[in-house]
Every structure is written in C-alpha cells, then in structure tokens.
Specification:
Length: 675
C-alpha cells in the first residue's frame, strides 16, 4: 500500500505554542469564542485546562460560584489535572489537537516563528472561554484530505490522525501496513509472538499442516526483518536439562527476564506433559526448563497469562483432540507446577481462546471454540479467592469467535481477528476491564490478514505512544503480513462512557490521574440535562474521597504493600529453603535407590547360590537313597552267603559220618536210600 510521511515540525515548547496559537489561545478575549467554534465542547474544555496547566501551572484559584456554569466547568477541567507537569500538559495539548485536526501544522507553518515568540509572553484570562463551549455538539466533521510530503491520505473519521513512524503513515484507530525491509518469515498461523527490547520475535507456527521451529525478529525501530540463528544446548546447566527443539504450533511465547518462554503447543510426536522451552537472547540458545511437581498433560491452543512471577495456564486441546478446561499455575521462581481446583463454575472445555490479567488479580477468559461451536462468553478468575465467575457484559458484545488474539493497554483489552468456522471476524473490539463494556474500535473490509484465525498481536511503543502490531494468520490463505494500529485516547475511553441524568446545573469534569497517560475521565454537558461520565474502576466521582483521605489511603496501601513484600520475601526464602531440602531429599533418595539396587543384586546372587545348593542337596539325597538300596542288597547277599556256608558245612559233616559208619558195618548208600 502507498505510504506517506508527515512533517515532524518544531520541537517543544515551540510546537506547543504554535498549536496553542492555532487553536485560538492568543491571549485575547475574542479568541476564546474561536476555540469553542473550532472544537466540540469537551475538547475545548480539555484544551483550555491543558493550556492553563502548561502556561500557569497547578490550579490554585478559588472555585467559581455554582450559578456560573461555564466558569465552574472550566475550573473543574483545570483543577482535575492535579499536579501534572508543564511538559506533559504541552505534549497532551498537541496530541489532542492532532487527533482533532491532523493538518493543523501545515496550515499554521507559515507563521510558526511569529507565533512562538508571541505565545511565550501570552497571559490568558483563566475563565475567558465563551459560553458557547457548553453547546451540545455531537456531529462528526466532514471528510478531510491530509497533505503529506509524498502523497495524500483521505481521512473519513474525526479520530484518525497521521503521524510519523519510521517513514510510514499511521492512522489513529485504523489498521495500516508499514513499509518493511528484510526477508519476512514464511506465511503461517498458530505461531507465537512476543516483544523484547523494541523487537518482535516470531517463533514456530503452522504452514500447510507442517509445524515450524524457526525464529525471526522484527526491529520495530527500523521495521526490518531478520532471521535468528540459534543453537540447542547439549550440556545441562543448573536448573535445565538438554533440549531438543521440536517444531510446534498452538504454543504460547512469553517474555521473561530477557528470555523467551515457549509453553506447550502441538507437535508431531507429542510428549506426555507440557514442555517449557527457553530461548536465551544473549547466547541465542534454546534449552528445556526442568520443572517440579505434576506437570499438565501436553496440549495446544491453551491460554498462558503472565501474572507477576507465575504463568496461569487454562484449557486447550490435548494430543487426543480432547478439549480441556483445567487450570494450572507454574511458579517461575521455583519452577513448580500446581494444579488448581478453583471454585465456582469454570468455562466449558475449549481451545483457541484469549486471556488477560487485570489489576494483577483477575484473569479474564474470552471466546474460544469447541468441536462444534464458538463462544463469546466472558469468564473471570479471582486469583485471591480462586473462584470463577461469569459477569454480565455490556456494550457492543463481540460475536462468537476462536483463534483471535488479544493485548491489554492499561485497563483496556483489545481483541483482533478470529473466526467462527465460516468466516473471519472483521472488527477490532476493546473491552474496558473495569466496567466490562465492549466497543468497536474499527472494522476492516474484505478477506484481509486481520480477519484471520491464528494471528498474533503484541503491544509495543513508539515515541512514547502505544502501538498494536499483528502478524500472520489464516483466512483461506496463509499470511506473513504485518499491520499496526495506534489507539487514540478516544478509543481507550470510549468503552467507559455511560449516560447519567443530572439536575439542570451545568458542569463538566476532566480528571487526569496519571500524567503519562491521556485523560482517564471526563464529563460532557448536554442541553437535555445529561452528562456522559467516564467511569474508572466502577467508582462514581460523587463517591470518591477527598485528596487528603486519598493520600492517607495511599500511605496505608504502601505500608500494607511493604508488609506484603516482607511476607513475600519470607515466603520466597522459605520456598528456596524447601527447594533445597527437596533437592537434598532427592539426592538421598537417589543414593538409597542405588544402595537398594546393590542389595537387590547381592540378594539375587545369594538366591542363585541357594538354588545351586538345593540342586546339590537333591542330588546327594538321590545318591544316599541309592546307597541305602545297595546296603540292603549287600546285607541280603551277606545273609544268603552265610546260609550257603552253613549248608555246606552241614553237608560236609554229614559226608564224613557216612564213611565211619560204613567202616562200622552200616553202608552209607543204604541210609541215603532210606532217607
């Protein structure tokens, strides 16, 4: 797309004085009517307050009488800025003017030098804005054409403004495609993206069903792509084990202490449990973190939210295509997993949803999909009570979607892309997490990467302003395009506006609580006796305490925070001590296991010897039985022998008696015959 560059103009404070003179703050009484005629009443009041803060300082004048509605409105607007420093007031003045009239400088450039000199000595009446400032002006300005050095840009909304970002035109609250150099990554979706030191890192993803494991970096200062060459650690380090970099998609990429953590994700050969891989930016090496406790089952399409020093993991889809709604927390200091059994009614099992943290206490879950449908429900987990709730959403509630991306800017949660299995979602929505009011920032037309599933969205900054950066996605084709959006203060405040009836007394309040951000709350006065109140943290302006009580409350909160920090330090020390004891116990367990294995080996050897001895005993018993049998046979033979010998002896004696008898006249033969 065609890009243009806007002129940067003079530096501060000259730029402020030029803007003030252009807006009509030239010190004369008649100029105030010009201010109210150029701008809507709320913008005019805010410009007046910022000009007073920049040129005079903090509002120390008495509050006007209640019947002086205009003077009181101006006083409240100025007094609401508190102790904002002059330079910040100048910057906000110019920014609001640029949002309302982007081409103001080109119109006033012919007289900048004269304006700068005269504006320094200008003394403006504190209450000289015409009463026309409180007219109810709700119409939008006509289409404007903005001249640039290269070409023209047609503006169709009053909140669009051109600014300079590395040679490109960026429109407030509108997506634009910057001019990028270098070799971009291959088109993909379901990848991971994270910001570290003005660089957007993109890792992994899915392209045509093939999982990826490449790593690329986009320098957001020069808008140049580069591929990151890395290596995988082969030797284990303290707290880490060797890693094998497996291509994955549907994972989460989290920045942590100058490192990148890749959590979970779908792989070709999934492991049983979630793997946490770490990329060291200094050494450009990958490794796998060693964790303790019961790790969750492996999955992809989950949400991973960094809350303090812990990762909160919810839902996803496991390797068997089963949808999950379990909740786990990984403590990044002890690297210990903890499965949470939260109270209340949890979200239904889902994947490809988004999650965000608010006030370091609440985790919000939005959208996602099951096998049959997509969701647009909102669930909130209170990390203190560990209980789920499903609050009522208000405003322009987004349509059901899955595969979308989200990022928080202050208390505002921007949701981009996604789809409902039929088409991609074209609108960019924002949720005020304090009031739970939705609004639409902008809408894209046609099948573009921003209306895709599986895109990534990160938050960066340029020249002190927030910038949303999207990459990739799939909506019928894979994308590797980069788009940026600069949210204006109007888009971040739009979701806070509610209408409240008031008496006929006319007032307007502009309350700026943070000098580094735009105005967080303002009241607009209408002829119908209504005001539009910007609600911050669900607290009415009427019910807020005085500043003295606020200071006391802050002191009390600081004391409580110090106590909590002390308790946290003790808990961390105790955790480290327990971790050391656990390591010692594991060492002892390892030694005992080795000893047990040795004893088992010895026992096996003894059992083998016993078996051999039993065999020998059985053989000896068999031989003994054989010897007993032989002994019996021998005894029998001996008895037989003895009997035979006795018989022979008897026969011998009988034979000798026959001879003598024959000699005596008794023939032996006759006796034998008789016998």
């Amino acid at each position: 797309m065609a890009m243009a560059r806007s002129s940067s103009g003079p530096a501060y404070p000259e730029r402020f004085y030029a803007a003030a003179a252009y807006a009509g703050f030239d010190g004369s009484h008649n100029s105030t009517s010009n201010v109210s005629s150029k701008f809507q009443n709320d913008t005019a009041l805010l410009l007046y307050a910022l000009y007073q803060q920049a040129t005079v300082g903090t509002c120390n004048v008495p509050k006007p009488s209640s019947w002086k509605a205009v003077e009181q409105s101006k006083w409240k607007s100025w007094q609401g800025l508190g102790n904002m420093v002059s330079t910040e007031a100048m910057r906000l003045f110019v920014k609001i003017l640029e949002e309302d009239d982007p081409s103001w400088y080109s119109r006033a450039s012919n007289s900048i030098s004269e304006i700068s000199e005269s504006a320094v000595d200008t003394q403006v009446n504190h209450y000289s804005i015409d009463e026309a400032i409180i007219k109810n002006e709700n119409s939008f300005p006509e289409t404007k054409t903005i001249s640039t050095e290269i070409g023209t840009l047609v503006e169709t909304q009053d909140k669009d403004v051109v600014s300079e970002v590395v040679g490109t035109v960026v429109v407030y609250d509108q997506w634009t495609e910057p001019s990028i150099t270098g070799q971009p990554p291959i088109a993909r979706y379901e990848h991971g993206a994270a910001i570290v030191q003005d660089k957007m890192y993109v890792y992994g993803g899915n392209h045509n069903g093939r999982y990826l494991n490449d790593l690329h970096a986009l320098d957001l200062r020069s808008w140049a792509w580069s591929k990151v060459n890395f290596k995988v650690e082969n030797e284990s380090q303290e707290g880490q084990s060797p890693a094998k970099l497996t291509p994955c998609a549907g994972h989460s990429l989290i920045p942590w202490e100058n490192k990148l953590l890749s959590v979970a994700g779908h792989t070709k050969d999934p492991s049983e449990t979630i793997q946490v891989k770490v990329f060291h930016l200094q050494s450009c090496t990958w490794s796998t973190l060693k964790t303790y406790g019961k790790a969750p089952v492996s999955r992809g399409g989950q949400s991973v939210t960094l809350v303090g020093t812990s990762l909160v993991i919810f839902g996803g889809q496991d390797a068997k295509k089963s949808l999950l709604n379990d909740l786990h927390i990984l403590d990044l200091e002890t690297m210990t997993w903890d499965e949470i059994d939260a109270g209340g009614v949890p979200p239904s099992p889902r994947s490809d949803h988004t999650a965000a943290v608010h006030a370091e206490r609440y985790v919000l879950i939005f959208g996602g999909g099951s096998h049959a449908t997509c969701f647009n429900d909102l669930h909130v987990l209170d990390l203190q009570t560990m209980e789920w709730t499903r609050p009522t959403q208000q405003g322009e509630i987004p349509t059901p979607r899955a595969g979308h991306a989200g990022v928080t800017v202050g208390e505002n949660w921007f949701i981009v892309g996604g789809g409902d299995n039929k088409s991609g979602v074209s609108e960019t929505a924002v949720l005020n997490m304090s009031t739970l009011v939705w609004s639409v920032v902008t809408t894209v037309q046609g099948r573009v990467p921003l209306a895709s599933e599986g895109l990534s969205l990160v938050l960066s900054s340029y020249n002190g302003e927030d910038v949303l950066v999207s990459f990739g996605g799939y909506n019928g084709r894979y994308s590797n395009e980069v788009n940026v959006l600069k949210p204006s203060h109007k888009s971040t405040l739009q979701s806070k506006i509610t209408e409240t009836p008031v008496p006929d007394i006319v007032s307007a309040v502009h309350n700026v609580t943070n000098p580094t951000r735009d105005v967080d709350s303002e009241l607009e006065v209408g002829q119908e006796g209504k005001i539009r109140e910007i609600v911050m943290d669900n607290v009415d302006q009427e019910s807020r305490k005085s500043r003295g009580e606020g200071t006391s409350l802050i002191a009390t909160l600081k004391a409580e925070r110090e106590e909590l920090d002390l308790s946290l330090g003790k808990e961390k020390l105790q955790t480290l001590h327990l971790k050391q004891e656990l390591a010692d116990a594991e060492t002892r367990n390892t030694d005992l296991y080795k000893e047990l294995q040795s004893v088992r080996g010895q026992l096996a050897a003894e059992q083998s010897r016993c078996f051999k001895l039993e065999v020998d005993v059985a053989e000896l018993r068999q031989k003994l039985q054989t010897m007993e049998t032989l002994q019996k046979e021998l005894e029998l033979l001996q008895r037989q022998k003895a009997a035979s010998e006795q018989a022979l002896d008897a026969n011998h004696r009988q034979g000798s008696g026959g001879v003598w008898g024959w000699l005596a006249g008794t023939p032996g033969g006759q006796k034998r015959d008789d016998a």
